[in-house]
Design goal:
Elements: H1 5-18, H2 21-30, E1 37-42, H3 48-57, E2 61-67, H4 70-80, E3 86-92, E4 108-112, H5 120-132, E5 137-150, H6 155-167, E6 170-171, E7 174-175, H7 181-192, E8 194-200, E9 203-206, H8 209-225, H9 230-241, E10 244-256
Parallel strand pairs: 1-2, 1-4, 2-3, 4-5
Antiparallel strand pairs: 5-10, 6-7, 8-10, 9-10
Helix pairs in contact: 5-7, 6-8, 8-9
Length: 259
Protein backbone atom coordinates (compact mmCIF):
# COMPACT_ATOMS: atom_id res chain seq x y z
CA UNK A 1 0.00 0.00 0.00
CA UNK A 2 1.31 3.45 -0.93
CA UNK A 3 0.28 6.91 0.23
CA UNK A 4 0.17 10.22 -1.61
CA UNK A 5 2.77 12.79 -0.51
CA UNK A 6 -0.03 15.37 -0.29
CA UNK A 7 -1.86 13.27 2.32
CA UNK A 8 1.33 12.72 4.31
CA UNK A 9 2.05 16.45 4.26
CA UNK A 10 -1.49 17.26 5.40
CA UNK A 11 -1.25 14.98 8.42
CA UNK A 12 2.32 15.81 9.48
CA UNK A 13 1.43 18.62 11.89
CA UNK A 14 -1.29 16.57 13.59
CA UNK A 15 1.08 13.61 13.85
CA UNK A 16 3.75 15.79 15.44
CA UNK A 17 1.30 17.18 17.99
CA UNK A 18 -0.06 13.72 18.83
CA UNK A 19 3.09 11.65 19.35
CA UNK A 20 4.14 10.98 22.93
CA UNK A 21 7.12 13.05 24.06
CA UNK A 22 7.12 11.14 27.37
CA UNK A 23 8.13 7.95 25.57
CA UNK A 24 10.90 9.86 23.79
CA UNK A 25 12.20 11.03 27.18
CA UNK A 26 12.48 7.40 28.31
CA UNK A 27 14.09 6.44 25.01
CA UNK A 28 16.65 9.22 25.22
CA UNK A 29 17.74 7.98 28.64
CA UNK A 30 18.07 4.46 27.25
CA UNK A 31 20.28 5.64 24.37
CA UNK A 32 22.25 8.22 26.37
CA UNK A 33 25.66 6.57 25.92
CA UNK A 34 25.26 5.81 22.22
CA UNK A 35 26.77 8.29 19.81
CA UNK A 36 26.37 8.31 16.90
CA UNK A 37 22.93 6.70 16.70
CA UNK A 38 21.88 4.45 13.83
CA UNK A 39 18.10 4.53 13.38
CA UNK A 40 16.02 2.42 11.02
CA UNK A 41 12.71 4.02 10.07
CA UNK A 42 10.24 1.50 8.63
CA UNK A 43 7.66 2.81 6.16
CA UNK A 44 9.28 6.22 6.34
CA UNK A 45 6.96 7.98 3.87
CA UNK A 46 8.35 11.46 3.28
CA UNK A 47 10.41 11.36 6.49
CA UNK A 48 8.03 12.96 8.97
CA UNK A 49 9.08 10.65 11.81
CA UNK A 50 12.71 11.59 11.31
CA UNK A 51 11.94 15.28 11.15
CA UNK A 52 10.02 14.99 14.42
CA UNK A 53 12.39 12.70 16.31
CA UNK A 54 15.92 13.64 15.24
CA UNK A 55 16.03 16.92 17.14
CA UNK A 56 14.45 15.37 20.21
CA UNK A 57 17.12 12.67 20.40
CA UNK A 58 20.03 14.99 19.61
CA UNK A 59 23.60 14.09 18.76
CA UNK A 60 24.97 12.66 15.54
CA UNK A 61 22.55 10.29 13.80
CA UNK A 62 22.48 8.05 10.75
CA UNK A 63 18.99 7.23 9.49
CA UNK A 64 18.28 4.20 7.31
CA UNK A 65 14.95 4.93 5.62
CA UNK A 66 12.84 1.95 4.48
CA UNK A 67 9.85 2.21 2.17
CA UNK A 68 8.34 0.45 -0.83
CA UNK A 69 7.71 3.67 -2.74
CA UNK A 70 10.80 5.12 -4.45
CA UNK A 71 9.15 8.52 -4.84
CA UNK A 72 8.55 8.81 -1.10
CA UNK A 73 12.08 7.62 -0.38
CA UNK A 74 13.46 10.38 -2.57
CA UNK A 75 11.43 13.03 -0.77
CA UNK A 76 12.42 11.65 2.64
CA UNK A 77 16.11 11.51 1.77
CA UNK A 78 16.11 15.08 0.48
CA UNK A 79 14.41 16.58 3.54
CA UNK A 80 16.21 14.47 6.14
CA UNK A 81 19.60 15.26 4.63
CA UNK A 82 19.05 18.92 5.48
CA UNK A 83 18.86 18.20 9.23
CA UNK A 84 21.85 19.08 11.40
CA UNK A 85 24.15 16.17 12.31
CA UNK A 86 22.01 13.70 10.32
CA UNK A 87 23.12 11.44 7.48
CA UNK A 88 20.71 9.34 5.47
CA UNK A 89 20.56 6.23 3.32
CA UNK A 90 17.51 4.59 1.75
CA UNK A 91 16.34 1.01 1.34
CA UNK A 92 13.48 0.20 -1.02
CA UNK A 93 11.55 -3.03 -0.60
CA UNK A 94 9.31 -5.20 1.55
CA UNK A 95 9.20 -4.33 5.25
CA UNK A 96 7.40 -7.47 6.40
CA UNK A 97 10.31 -9.91 6.46
CA UNK A 98 13.05 -8.10 8.40
CA UNK A 99 15.18 -10.32 10.64
CA UNK A 100 17.55 -9.69 13.54
CA UNK A 101 20.42 -9.91 11.06
CA UNK A 102 18.85 -7.11 9.00
CA UNK A 103 18.72 -4.91 12.11
CA UNK A 104 22.28 -5.63 13.24
CA UNK A 105 24.10 -2.43 14.15
CA UNK A 106 20.93 -0.40 14.69
CA UNK A 107 20.38 1.52 17.92
CA UNK A 108 16.67 2.12 17.32
CA UNK A 109 13.85 0.96 15.05
CA UNK A 110 10.99 3.38 14.44
CA UNK A 111 7.78 3.51 12.47
CA UNK A 112 4.71 5.69 12.31
CA UNK A 113 1.16 4.67 11.35
CA UNK A 114 2.40 1.33 10.01
CA UNK A 115 1.44 -1.52 12.33
CA UNK A 116 -2.21 -1.72 11.26
CA UNK A 117 -0.96 -2.81 7.82
CA UNK A 118 0.84 -5.86 9.23
CA UNK A 119 -0.52 -9.34 9.89
CA UNK A 120 -0.26 -11.01 13.31
CA UNK A 121 2.60 -13.21 12.09
CA UNK A 122 4.46 -10.22 10.64
CA UNK A 123 4.02 -8.30 13.89
CA UNK A 124 5.35 -11.21 15.91
CA UNK A 125 8.33 -11.60 13.59
CA UNK A 126 9.17 -7.89 13.79
CA UNK A 127 9.09 -7.97 17.59
CA UNK A 128 11.34 -11.03 17.67
CA UNK A 129 13.76 -9.40 15.22
CA UNK A 130 14.04 -6.27 17.36
CA UNK A 131 14.52 -8.19 20.60
CA UNK A 132 17.02 -10.65 19.16
CA UNK A 133 18.98 -7.73 17.71
CA UNK A 134 18.81 -5.94 21.10
CA UNK A 135 17.27 -2.88 19.43
CA UNK A 136 14.65 -0.68 21.12
CA UNK A 137 11.55 0.10 19.06
CA UNK A 138 9.46 3.26 19.03
CA UNK A 139 6.26 2.64 17.06
CA UNK A 140 3.93 5.63 16.94
CA UNK A 141 0.39 6.46 15.83
CA UNK A 142 -1.06 2.97 15.59
CA UNK A 143 -4.81 3.26 15.04
CA UNK A 144 -6.88 2.29 18.06
CA UNK A 145 -10.25 1.94 16.33
CA UNK A 146 -11.97 4.63 18.40
CA UNK A 147 -13.33 7.91 17.07
CA UNK A 148 -15.09 10.55 19.14
CA UNK A 149 -17.23 13.23 17.55
CA UNK A 150 -18.71 16.24 19.34
CA UNK A 151 -21.63 16.29 19.12
CA UNK A 152 -22.07 12.51 18.86
CA UNK A 153 -24.84 10.88 16.88
CA UNK A 154 -26.24 7.33 16.52
CA UNK A 155 -24.64 6.62 13.13
CA UNK A 156 -21.12 7.12 14.53
CA UNK A 157 -20.97 3.58 15.88
CA UNK A 158 -22.13 2.00 12.63
CA UNK A 159 -19.52 3.82 10.55
CA UNK A 160 -16.79 3.14 13.11
CA UNK A 161 -17.57 -0.58 13.23
CA UNK A 162 -17.62 -0.82 9.45
CA UNK A 163 -14.33 1.05 9.12
CA UNK A 164 -12.68 -1.16 11.73
CA UNK A 165 -13.87 -4.26 9.90
CA UNK A 166 -12.45 -2.83 6.67
CA UNK A 167 -9.09 -2.33 8.39
CA UNK A 168 -9.10 -6.00 9.39
CA UNK A 169 -9.72 -7.11 5.80
CA UNK A 170 -7.75 -9.71 3.87
CA UNK A 171 -5.42 -8.24 1.21
CA UNK A 172 -3.58 -10.60 -1.13
CA UNK A 173 -4.09 -13.41 1.35
CA UNK A 174 -2.86 -11.30 4.30
CA UNK A 175 -5.32 -10.58 7.12
CA UNK A 176 -4.40 -7.15 8.41
CA UNK A 177 -4.29 -6.25 12.10
CA UNK A 178 -6.06 -2.93 11.70
CA UNK A 179 -7.12 -1.54 15.10
CA UNK A 180 -5.92 -4.72 16.82
CA UNK A 181 -2.33 -3.63 16.11
CA UNK A 182 -1.56 -1.82 19.40
CA UNK A 183 -2.56 -4.78 21.55
CA UNK A 184 -0.88 -7.25 19.19
CA UNK A 185 2.36 -5.26 19.23
CA UNK A 186 2.44 -5.05 23.02
CA UNK A 187 1.74 -8.77 23.34
CA UNK A 188 4.38 -9.67 20.75
CA UNK A 189 7.14 -7.61 22.35
CA UNK A 190 6.40 -8.84 25.86
CA UNK A 191 6.41 -12.44 24.63
CA UNK A 192 9.71 -11.86 22.82
CA UNK A 193 11.36 -10.46 25.95
CA UNK A 194 10.97 -6.69 26.05
CA UNK A 195 9.61 -4.19 28.52
CA UNK A 196 6.81 -2.16 26.96
CA UNK A 197 5.35 1.25 27.63
CA UNK A 198 2.41 2.72 25.75
CA UNK A 199 0.88 6.17 25.52
CA UNK A 200 -2.17 7.62 23.83
CA UNK A 201 -1.48 9.82 20.81
CA UNK A 202 -4.80 11.18 19.54
CA UNK A 203 -5.42 13.51 16.66
CA UNK A 204 -7.67 16.39 17.77
CA UNK A 205 -9.42 18.08 14.88
CA UNK A 206 -12.01 20.82 14.61
CA UNK A 207 -13.53 21.02 11.13
CA UNK A 208 -10.14 21.58 9.53
CA UNK A 209 -8.66 20.44 6.21
CA UNK A 210 -7.17 17.30 7.72
CA UNK A 211 -10.52 16.30 9.18
CA UNK A 212 -12.30 16.76 5.89
CA UNK A 213 -9.76 14.69 3.97
CA UNK A 214 -9.56 12.01 6.66
CA UNK A 215 -13.35 11.75 6.79
CA UNK A 216 -13.58 11.09 3.06
CA UNK A 217 -11.35 8.06 3.42
CA UNK A 218 -12.93 6.92 6.69
CA UNK A 219 -16.50 7.09 5.40
CA UNK A 220 -15.51 5.66 2.02
CA UNK A 221 -13.86 2.62 3.60
CA UNK A 222 -16.87 2.08 5.87
CA UNK A 223 -19.24 2.12 2.88
CA UNK A 224 -16.98 -0.24 0.95
CA UNK A 225 -17.20 -2.64 3.88
CA UNK A 226 -20.94 -2.13 4.54
CA UNK A 227 -22.68 -0.96 1.32
CA UNK A 228 -25.94 -0.44 3.22
CA UNK A 229 -24.35 2.67 4.75
CA UNK A 230 -24.16 4.33 1.33
CA UNK A 231 -27.65 5.80 1.63
CA UNK A 232 -26.60 7.84 4.66
CA UNK A 233 -22.99 8.51 3.68
CA UNK A 234 -23.27 11.86 1.92
CA UNK A 235 -25.25 13.66 4.61
CA UNK A 236 -23.31 11.91 7.37
CA UNK A 237 -20.05 13.11 5.82
CA UNK A 238 -21.36 16.67 5.67
CA UNK A 239 -22.46 16.66 9.32
CA UNK A 240 -19.28 15.05 10.63
CA UNK A 241 -17.15 17.54 8.69
CA UNK A 242 -18.70 20.27 10.81
CA UNK A 243 -18.14 18.47 14.14
CA UNK A 244 -14.98 18.27 16.21
CA UNK A 245 -13.27 14.89 16.15
CA UNK A 246 -10.73 12.90 18.14
CA UNK A 247 -9.05 10.00 16.35
CA UNK A 248 -7.37 7.75 18.89
CA UNK A 249 -3.93 6.24 18.34
CA UNK A 250 -1.39 4.44 20.53
CA UNK A 251 2.38 4.92 20.73
CA UNK A 252 4.56 2.06 21.92
CA UNK A 253 8.13 1.94 23.23
CA UNK A 254 9.64 -1.54 23.56
CA UNK A 255 13.06 -1.99 25.15
CA UNK A 256 14.60 -5.48 25.02
CA UNK A 257 15.60 -6.62 28.49
CA UNK A 258 19.15 -7.16 27.25
CA UNK A 259 19.54 -3.45 26.41
Amino acid sequence: MTFAPEWLALRESADASARSTELVDVLRETLVNRNPLTIRDLGCGTGSMGRWLAGRLGGVQHWVLHDRDPRLLGLAEASMSELKDVTVETRQGDLTALTAADLAGADLVTCSALLDLLTPDEMNALAVACVEAHVPALFTLSVAGRIEFEPAEPLDAAFQDAFNAHQRRVVDGRKLLGPDAPAAAEEAFVAAGASVRTAESPWRMNSDALQREWLKGWVGAAVEQEPALAADASEYLRRRSEASAVVHHVDLLAIPRAV
